[in-house]
Amino acid sequence: MAELPSFQVEAKTISTAVDVEQLDTNLFRSKSLWIPFRARGVFGGQVISQALASATRCVHAAYGLHSLHCYFLLSASPAIPILYHVDRVREGRTYCTRAVRAVQNGRTIFVMLCSFQKPELNQPNYQWPMPSNVHSPDACKAVHARALTVIQEPSVDPFVKAYLSDYVQEREQSPFEIKNAGSQVSESGVKFYMYWFRAKNIPQYEASFQKCILGYISDSHFIGVAARTLGIDRWKKPPKHMSMMSTLDHSIYFYDDNFDCGDWLLYVISCPRASSGRAVVHGRMYSTDGVLIAAMSQEGVLRVSNKDPTDEAQEMAKL
C-alpha cells in the first residue's frame, strides 16, 4: 500500500483532532484537519467536534451541552485552518445558547447552534432499550475486515483493490476503532444497522470534552446506512451504484454525562426515508451497560449513477 498524503492521515489521537487554538475571547482556530480518502472535504465529524470545543470554552462550567443542530454549507479544505466564531446568543438561569460560524477563505462553510443546561435532578427518566442479542465487541469484526478479504481475491478490479487498500490503511491508522455489530429488523419491519465504536488510548476526560469526541465519531458510518438500506454501493455495477454521498445537516441530543468514549459504544442506525437525491438517518448511542447516551439525526445528499464505477475511478485517477 502506498503511504497516504499527510492531509489524509488522521491525528494519532481523537483529542488532538478535536482541540482548537483560542485566538480571542470568542474566536478559535483549528489545529489539525483531515480529509478521508476520496472525500469531498474535511471530515464532518471533525468540524462538529471543533465547533463544539470552541462553544464549550465560551460557557460557564455549570452548564452542560444537551443538544446541537448544524448545517454543512461548503466542503472544507485541509490545507487552510478553519476559524470558529462563537456568538453568545443567550444567557439564562437554566439554559444558555451559543452559535458557531466556521469560516475558511472568508466564506462560511458551517454553522451550528448548540444549547447548554444546568443539571435538573429528580426528574422522570425513560429511554428506548438497547437492542437485544447484540454480539459483544470481542465477537465482532472490524469494519474493514471484508475489505481485507476482497483485496486478496485474484479477480478483483485493480481500481477497486487500490481503493480498498487505501481504505484499510486509513482505518488501521485511525484514532478510533469501528466494529460491525450486524443488523436487526424490528417487529414493525424497520431494519437498523449497528456498529461498535471506541476511541483508542484516551484518558478519563471530563464530560464536556467526551461530548466533543462523541460529536466526532457520530458522523462516521451514519449517512452510509442510507446507502446500505437502499442496496447502493460505490463499486457495484450499473444500474445502481453510489456516485455522491455528502452530509447536509446533523443533530445530537445528549442525555447522559457518565460515559467514556474510550469504552465501547454501540451505534444503532436506521434510515426512515430516502428520495429526491436525499436521505435521512436516525441514530442512538448506547454504553455497554445499556444506557442511551445520545440520539442523533442526519440528512445527506445521496445520488446514484448509471456509469460504470471503474470508469469513474479511472476518471478520478486522471484528476
Automatic annotation (TrEMBL):
Residues 39-117 form the Acyl-CoA thioesterase-like N-terminal HotDog domain. Keywords: Hydrolase. CDD domains: Thioesterase_II_repeat1 (cd03444), Thioesterase_II_repeat2 (cd03445). Signal peptide: none annotated. InterPro entries: ACOT8-like_C (IPR049450), Acyl-CoA_hotdog (IPR042171), Acyl_CoA_thio (IPR003703), HotDog_dom_sf (IPR029069), TesB_ACOT8-like_N (IPR049449). Residues 180-301 form the Acyl-CoA thioesterase-like C-terminal domain. The keyword Hydrolase applies. Belongs to the C/M/P thioester hydrolase family. This is Thioesterase/thiol ester dehydrase-isomerase. It comes from Somion occarium.
